[in-house]
Structures are given as C-alpha cells and as structure tokens.
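Practice problem. Given the sequence and the SMILES for flavin-adenine dinucleotide, write out the predicted structure.
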Amino acid sequence: MIKKILIIGSGPSALSACIKLLKEKNIQIYLLDGKDLMNIENSGCIYSSTHEGSQSRYKKLFKNNLDNSFKTTYKDAPKPSLQFGGYSTVWGGAINILENDYEEYWSVIKEDINSLIPNFENILEISSNSDKYLQYQTQELPIVKREKKLLERLKKINNKKLSSDFSSIAMSTKIDKNICQECGEYTWSCKPYSAWSSHSLIKKLVDAEKIIYLQNTSVYKIEENHTDNTCAIYTDKHKKYDLEFNKIFVGAGAIGSSKIVLNSFEDISKIEIHTNDLISVPSINLSKKDTKLHTFTDLYIKYKDNKSNLFSQYYGYSENLLKLSENAVPLVKYIKGLLKPLLRYSGGIFLYLDQENSSSFVIEKEMGELVIKKGHEPKKRNLFPSISTFFLILLKARIICLPFGKWRKYGTSNHFGAQFSFSNETEKRNKLNIQSDRKGRIKKMKNVHFIDSSVLPVLAPGPITFIVMLNAYRITEEAISETKI
Ligand SMILES: Cc1cc2nc3c(=O)[nH]c(=O)nc-3n(C[C@H](O)[C@H](O)[C@H](O)COP(=O)(O)OP(=O)(O)OC[C@H]3O[C@@H](n4cnc5c(N)ncnc54)[C@H](O)[C@@H]3O)c2cc1C
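Answer key:
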C-alpha cells in the first residue's frame, strides 16, 4: 500500500527529510509551507551601487514573510519565518559538525550523527580548508594571508581551553576566481543565493513532480487518530484539511513548531525556547593588511572554561563586508573614508554564547491567543571573567578587541530551539521542558515527528543548521523504517 507522508516546512530540516524519503519506495511525499513559492530575485550583484544593497541576503526577509499572528509583550520579540526556504534564504551558510564537547548530550543517540554527512555531498557544496572535512568532497574557501597568519598564531598559543580552525561554508555554487565587474569581489560571493538555501532544491523537486506541493496551506494544528493510525492537519482552528497522512515530519522551525504544538495540545500552555545570545565585537588584526574578496567568515575560535563555552566567528575585513555593516551601523558610512587605511587591518568577531548563558523566550497561551514573553535573562556579569580572559588570549595572537561590542539577546542568527530536547540533562534543569523521544515525538504522538532545532538535545553555540539537518535525516530514517513493518 502506498503511504502518504507529509513534510511541514521548506527550510533545511524539511529538505533533509525529503532527501531521505526520496530514497524510499511505496510512499507519496506531500509538502506544504507557510508562504507560497515566490520569485525571489536571484541574479545580479547584491553589492552593486545600482541596487544599494536592496537584494542583500539580510534584507530578503521582509516583514510580510514573518509570522505576524503572535502577540508580544515587548518590542523586537522573535518571529518565525514564513518564507519558502525558511531562514536559509538569509542565513550566512556557516556550518559545523557535532563537536566532542557536546557529544555527551547526544548519548541516547548511539549512531554517530556525523557519519550521515556523505548523504549531503551532492546537495550542498561544503567549502572549507579544515581537516575535519578532508574525507568528504569539499572545495577550498579562499583565505587571505592575513587570516592564515592569524590562525597560525592562534594554533601556537598553548592553552587547552582554546581551539581554532578554518570556517566551513555551505555554498550553492562552485568557487572559482571570477571577479564581478560591479563590486570587484568574487562573483560566487556577491550573488543573492551565494550561500546555500533549501529554496531552489525544493522548488526543483516540486517542478519535477517528485513531491506533491500543497499550495497556500499553513498548519494550525495536528490531530492523530490512534485507532486507524492516521494524522490530520487543520489549517484553521476548525478547518480540517481533506487529506489524511500516515506520517508527518514537522520542520516549521523552533517557533513555528511550538505554535503547532500549543494549538494541538490543550494541556500544554507554555513553551520555553532556548537561544544563543551573541556579542559582536569590532577588532584589529595586527598580522598584516590584505585584500579579502568575499564576505564569508574565515575562522572560528572557541574558548571553554568551567563557566562558559564560547564560539566566535572571525570575519576579516573586505570592502563588501563594510557595505553590509553600513546597514547595521550607519555611522560607518560617514567615517569609512577616514578609517580606510586602518580598515585593511580590521575585522569583526561574532561571539556566540552557550545556552546556559543566553536568554530564552516563552510562548504562552493567553485567552485563546499566543503571546511571546521574555524568559530566562542571564546575568551578564557572570560571564565577564571568561570573556575578558578570552580577549586577553586573543591579544597574544595580536587581535585587539575594540570596546564597542554589542550584546545581542537571542543573537541575530535565529539559533533557537531545544525546547523538546530528548536529553535528560536539559530536562533536569528545565521544568517547562517537554521531552521528545529519539524519533522526535512528543507526548502520545506516534506518527508525528519533529525534525527541526526543537528536538536538538542542546543548542551548542555556533552554527547549528548542519547538525539540525543531520539529525532530521536520522529521525526520518528511523521513523520511516517503522512504516515498512
Ligand atoms: C541572518 C541569519 C543568519 C544565519 N546564519 C546561520 C549560519 O551561518 N549558520 C547556521 O548554521 N545557521 C544560521 N542561521 C540559522 C538558520 O537559518 C536556521 O537554523 C535554519 O534555517 C533552520 O532551518 P529549519 O528548517 O529548522 O527552519 P526554517 O528555516 O525556519 O524553516 C521553517 C519553514 O517552515 C515554514 N512554516 C513555519 N510555520 C509553518 C506552519 N504553521 N505551517 C506551514 N509551514 C510553516 C516556514 O515558512 C519555513 O519555510 C541564520 C539565521 C539568520 C536569520
């Protein structure tokens, strides 16, 4: 019998489920997403003066592509993306694999999550100079001497709490030496879709009729029928969709999935979503000046002591990176002429904080509405000793961190989740936590599997998306084997 499988979402976790399901026989794959497929502009140079940054990766997420149905008790409360392709249409493409420091949280999952990487080799172009990826098909990311020297210096520092390596980026294209006539940097770096996104791949699968796309459909809640083992979706409080499914994989992102859970279970009134806060710090790299021709992150530097686990991404200066920061810090526009000789030595550090030292937020049911409220607020002063020691160590590698850093609650990269963690460790500390099992199921759900960052055991600081994709693949593999029995 042909089984009907539904995937909710079109972001990276949903694509992972698709990749696994496409290898299966006797199933029909259905996919729906909050927003319809859109013609997002995908050609031209995003830094060209004629566009004035209007096509920038960071600007593509317009207000009307966010879920504005939430009530909030404060300004700038996070909202889920309802854009086809999810947040991967605006992300930075930085990837990381599961690190030893965090393996303990995954203990219930016996399988090595990193062993699933080869399943993504033809899906995203991993671009990295790190030895971690040597066994996989990768391409090199051009790193200028300035940053290479910096990494050499960092590696020479004898401190067990410190580790560093080249960054890894998921690209949509092959890296070559072609230079854009408009911005003067690499053409593979200045296109709107330079960083990999799930958007175009899912669109191709829809066009090739490999998956059935249910247009203009957003999920309000899911209902399971335990007698005939089917799942139904509602597109509104009382509006049941006329198809039923044998299994559902939910990849609506941490907030989107929480919303579906709150609407599906009467006895769940609150969900606390963990995040990674971010401190952005401008810096001077005294190694040497150089000309970097792309805007991706070059290196990462990690520091772990008994109070914190810090993950920093280092961005060496490039002209286009300066244009991007003009949007964020308007002052830069006026002083850049004055600073140009100095800027060639400069860079920036994005310091991601671990879940324990970061803010959380709560989604709560209140008189039939979902309200976003502030959750845990970390005490900043607890982290100061670790951060200042880290900055002093960086000074040994000749990086001066300038005192204009900004602490950004929840970060800017939407590293949200772990609210349905399957790790017992997190459960002990968090009374609000709703635990999932190893197949991403919560409460009494049998055939509804959450596959996005909601079911990560913990939010490790640094890039989370590739780990989410590997975990989504694992859950789909384990869950689909049940339907064959
Ligand atoms: C500016 C920025 C930079 C980032 N940089 C990085 C980076 O460099 N490295 C990294 O690892 N991560 C990065 N991230 C985070 C990364 O984008 C997310 O981790 C990733 O997109 C999560 O994938 P997902 O599939 O779980 O969810 P999403 O990408 O959020 O996709 C969810 C999908 O579900 C759909 N949806 C939501 N609700 C419903 C509903 N009720 N019904 C139907 N469909 C629904 C949405 O339309 C969307 O398509 C960045 C994020 C941002 C915003």
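Check your answer against the key. The chain has a mean pLDDT of 89.
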